[in-house]
Amino acid sequence: GSAAGAAKPGEAEVKELRYQGNAGSVTYPELAEDLGYLGDIKLKWVGNTTSGPQDIQSAATGQTDFGGAFNGAIIKLKAAKAPIKAVIGYYGSDQRSFNGYYVTDDSPIKTARDLIGRKIGVNTLGAHHEAVIKEYLKRAGLTPEEIRQVQLVVIPPVNTEQALRQGQLDVGTLGGVLKDKALQRGGLRPLFTDVDLFGPFTAGSVVLREDFIARNPTTTRTFVQAFAKAVDWAQTHPREEVVARFQKIIAKRGRDEDATTVAFWKSTGIAGKGGVIADKEFQTWIDWLAREGEIEPGRLKPADLYTNAFNPYANGSGS
Amino acid sequence: MADRRSAPATGTALSEREPLELPTGLDRHVAPVAAPAYQPSVRTSRPSALARRTRRLASRAVTKSGAILLLLAAWEVLPRVGVFDRVFVPPLSEDLVVWYGLLLDGPLPEHLQASLIRSLSGFGLAIALAIPLGLLIGWYRPVADALTPLLEVFRNTSPVALLPVFTLILGIGETSKITFVLYACSWPILLNTVSGVKTVEPLLIKSARSMGLGPVRLFQKVILPAAVPAIFTGVRLAGAYSILVLLFAEMVGAKAGLGYLILDTQSSFRIPEMYAGIITISALGLLFNLLLLRIERRFSTWRTT
Amino acid sequence: MADRRSAPATGTALSEREPLELPTGLDRHVAPVAAPAYQPSVRTSRPSALARRTRRLASRAVTKSGAILLLLAAWEVLPRVGVFDRVFVPPLSEDLVVWYGLLLDGPLPEHLQASLIRSLSGFGLAIALAIPLGLLIGWYRPVADALTPLLEVFRNTSPVALLPVFTLILGIGETSKITFVLYACSWPILLNTVSGVKTVEPLLIKSARSMGLGPVRLFQKVILPAAVPAIFTGVRLAGAYSILVLLFAEMVGAKAGLGYLILDTQSSFRIPEMYAGIITISALGLLFNLLLLRIERRFSTWRTT
Amino acid sequence: MTTTAVTTKIGIRDVRKVFQVRDAGEPFVALDGVDLDVREGEFLALVGPSGCGKSTLLDLVAGLTAPTAGEIVIDGTPVTGPGLDRGIVFQQYALFPWRTAQANVEFGLEAKAVPRRERRERARHHLDLVGLTGFEERYPHELSGGMRQRVAIARSLAFDPDVLLMDEPFAALDAQTRESLQEELLRIWDKTGKTIIFITHGIDEAVYLGQRVAVMTSRPGTIKEVVEVAFDSRAGDLRADPVFGEYRHHVWTLLRDEVAAAQVLERKAATSRG
Amino acid sequence: MTTTAVTTKIGIRDVRKVFQVRDAGEPFVALDGVDLDVREGEFLALVGPSGCGKSTLLDLVAGLTAPTAGEIVIDGTPVTGPGLDRGIVFQQYALFPWRTAQANVEFGLEAKAVPRRERRERARHHLDLVGLTGFEERYPHELSGGMRQRVAIARSLAFDPDVLLMDEPFAALDAQTRESLQEELLRIWDKTGKTIIFITHGIDEAVYLGQRVAVMTSRPGTIKEVVEVAFDSRAGDLRADPVFGEYRHHVWTLLRDEVAAAQVLERKAATSRG
Ligand SMILES: Nc1ncnc2c1ncn2[C@@H]1O[C@H](COP(=O)(O)OP(=O)(O)OP(=O)(O)O)[C@@H](O)[C@H]1O
Ligand SMILES: Nc1ncnc2c1ncn2[C@@H]1O[C@H](COP(=O)(O)OP(=O)(O)OP(=O)(O)O)[C@@H](O)[C@H]1O
Ligand SMILES: [Mg+2]
Ligand SMILES: [Mg+2]
């Protein structure tokens, strides 16, 4: 009984979508709206989100109509039996936008094996960073026993650089502006980056409630289409133009936020054209979670988790 | 004389009644210092009295647990009938099953231990720091003048906002976690101690001073005992906080602990496990509170009989 | 007679001295109910007394602000000399410049307003709920029996752990934010009120009851005034919490507010702006506390001079 | 309502009051078999050794505590709690520290829903009666011990109850103030026909004020004897009357025996413990 | 040190005490120009109308408050605070509610660092002295008014100070207990040579106990007259001595004039206000 936002049978489809934004950045639906792709659909900003899991939970409980998070989080939410479906990818890593796992220049850590018994700082457990690290360690051939000896320590991203330099951490996870600023100051070198490990990949997707999709097929199609076109627009336009557009949108919406980080935007990081999702972008994390014992092996297949059915760029690509 | 004759009968009639409603309630509950209006123990030899007493105890037990049972029932039923979303608020029984699993062969004992050490250390330190400090501030004008402004600034600065500063200065190890608990627990103890000291009956202070008690003795023998009820209120508040703030203390750099468990399971959507963590934290807090109440009662036997 | 002659001289000598150290300190500070030992106002006609008084006030002002100034100085200097990393802890002056900018043509007033509305609503509701409830629990055994267990369970359950449940039930709008503040503020008020009621001098209750006061009147005319000091301690604690918990209340689905500002700036690494937010929150808390102290003083004139 | 004789205002019937003193094994019997009828409009003085249970008895009559056994009736109705018909002056004043003298006196009148204006008048009047004009706005802690006691007296008088229960009301007053308040009390009693139970340690006072003087025994307290005090006339200086001296002596003797008995009890207790 | 006469123990020199009563414009003068020398080993009784400043004066001698003007010297040294040489019995007992009778009496002894064993002995002894054997383990709220006062007396006696300051110590006691404690106090005084200032409202008591009786005037309090009480011999029933009656009458007259004066003052105040 949580589908508060869904239209009741017989009623017209929902045309106003509630969502949580991100302070200081522009999400693709917002871009789509600005580009005029949304048609009769209106967006209703209810506030900003603090984390992906919180965002998709809000969507799952009907507080909002869509939300996005790391694919691993989506798998977990689905495993918890929440009726959601990923419809499009919205962030990821490529050569320009990626997350790196950094050590200080003088650090003795050179290989994955050196990490045994060391501390790695991550922003939150059970999410993107942890998943990448575990995958890295596995691919480097460490046994599960050895992997267990690598300590993951939660630390706010803001504190990561400083903790790393002070020696409280052996490895720090950095991305985005924080990474750029930290690298500017020098003295850090990457141990590995996620894009090295996986190649360009989409890491997170936007989800809708299944009942919402069922009751609002047209709205869903329009929304995902607009979303995909916005992604494509950002993927295909020059960086400067995208940044300028983002800055314009931020200035226009008047949320009193700081637009400086937008200037650091480099790329969408989304692998598939128009945000089309690939099987492996879920399968990797399903395997990881099964290894960690968080989900029963074989219970979830990528197909249960996402659909490209509404994405106009899907023909031929993906599964 | 006819009056006197009838007296025993009437007397029995009265003693068969329940104690006078208002006075007894007051004497027993609000005004424990006053003599109990009514002493059932004197008449336990009469079986009817005993039976009535048992009945009363039983009915009190029902009142006492009624609200709780209602809550638990709601927790079980509402998700089942679909008022709450079962995914996010699973029925109590499911949570308990998971809890039991975590306890028996899961990581719960380890989390519990890690948290307990942090809570108790921080709480203990808060008591050891805040009570003497509160006594000093309540007592010495110069100390109050010198420290109050600074303390008020800190009291009004969220430890969570300061978390980065905390980790900056204290690192991300146990020190910063325990300090965090200490920080959060100190304020209720401090404020209540100060207020306890300030409301000590002045005549008692006068009396002690007239017997030549120095400041230290005066503290120990008059101010402290007189302020005990107020201090304990603060301590009980702090007791709850020492457990509650685990959630923040274990937000940074934790590898185990109940707060960590809750945060971790919450972000991983292991909802029943999250509730298992919340249940454990609440139970721990309740236990702690019970313990503190016991100790408080011991400290104030002169009041509570 | 020789004794009497010498008296005025000695009298002057004594009045030239500072007041007796310990007694005065006590009478004025700890034991405000006692008569002030010493009344400088009687002698203000003498200029030396006036000068001395001014000097004393000045020296007290220094003691009072000394610790604060030291803290502020440390905040300014330590980052500059490199003890703290300037990037993470910018010198105070930088933060203040940013703060001033935010205040004048930045979004600070809007954030402030959003937060104030939430804090004050939650705080006001907490007072309106917790004081009567505390009085009832402290007073009526049956109410205490029925509610205490449930309340203890809630008191020991972290609102932050329950945040998902909160938003689930109340949505992510203002309701859930205000409820969150209310929830956090209620406990200190409740506990202190209960304890205040329980330590009311029983003789006063007896006296009031002997004059035929009904329960309601007794509440209003005896229990409440007698419990005021304890209640106010709780209210002051709650006052601070009402501001501090904004950080959590505004964690989910907020569009403005100081907590939102801090979280937002922190996550986007706008450190000076984050400190501007923290400074504002602390200042707000201090102001609030000052206000509450004023009100408390008004309620207890009979004590404080 | 009037099954008992019309003249009985307060009937104390075989009253027993037991206190349980914490861990102490056997309960402490404060009052045992107290039987006493106070007549309508009577001024009864109650004397007894310190700790014999006088205040305890007054609490019972006031309805502030319930007897362990026995019964107290007022106007034929058993007492089940305090009532507006009874006013009490406690041994320890019991003023509200947050109220001025004036407001303390008004307190009882508020309970009786006396209009504000009249309340103020009555409070002023009674404070004047006890010699506290000019101290109306003082808080209790700004008053001397005797002044506080007088505020308590003024409060009970302003309350104007049918039955006045006074526990050593004049103990903290100097001889002159005491005498003038005694006169005042007698005047009011005479005028209003109140029933008064007046506990005192002054035998002179008891004999002077009381129509009857009830003497209590010590531990467990019970009524030893009720002495009828009958003067041919209450005019003139009663205290100079030779009959006064006789009553005085009689009561004094009764009390002395009691105190001696109590002391013997104590010695025994002391020696039996070593 | 001994510029004053050797016999002076406590010198009260032109002492003035003023209270500021909140918003009231002019300050309240409680004591003005109080001059009094108490001799070494003297038993001085202090009487005066209620509210005249007796307790205030005692506080000053105890060093608990400082005079607004004037000076108090003990053994030639100005008083600057309380000291172990002075013990005080407050008008309102001031027992510690969280301590039993026994522990209350031991309280002062702890301050004096008396060893535990001796403390217990002395406390027991003095509780016995005031007739409270068997009540050692009672908390104050489990004692009657008179019993509490006796605990306070026992505490001050056990404390064994050089100077004993007693504020109406026997006010809540019945005649017999009072008499026996008077005897006890005189015995102790005789034996130990303490200097005692004893406030009382009983003129009999003042004349009986005091070597001198100081009579105070009302508002502002000052010493009106100090009456030397000299009996040929203190043996026999002093109270029956006709000289006793004379002294009694003299003090009574002094006091009556004072109370009358005070009442005139009040009437004036009352009429001037309307
Ligand atoms: N709450 C109590 N618990 C135990 N014993 C009590 C309690 N209250 C009174 N007592 C005892 O009951 C007895 C009678 O006390 P009560 O106060 O009635 O005496 P009293 O006659 O008024 O004495 P006094 O003249 O000294 O005031 C005393 O021995 C006292 O110790
Ligand atoms: N703290 C105070 N503030 C204002 N006035 C006070 C204060 N303390 C005492 N007084 C006033 O000083 C006067 C003397 O008080 P004090 O207690 O010394 O009287 P007392 O002689 O002991 O009277 P009693 O015999 O009634 O105890 C009184 O009029 C009283 O109202
Ligand atoms: Mg009594
Ligand atoms: Mg006095």
TrEMBL record, chains D, E:
Residue intervals passing through the bilayer: none
Domain ABC transporter: 10-243
Keywords of this entry: ATP-binding, Nucleotide-binding, Transport
InterPro entries: AAA+_ATPase, ABC_transporter-like_ATP-bd, ABC_transporter-like_CS, ABC_transporter_ATP-bind, P-loop_NTPase
A molecular function GO annotation: ATP hydrolysis activity
SUPFAM superfamilies: P-loop containing nucleoside triphosphate hydrolases
Name of the molecule in the record: ABC transporter ATP-binding protein
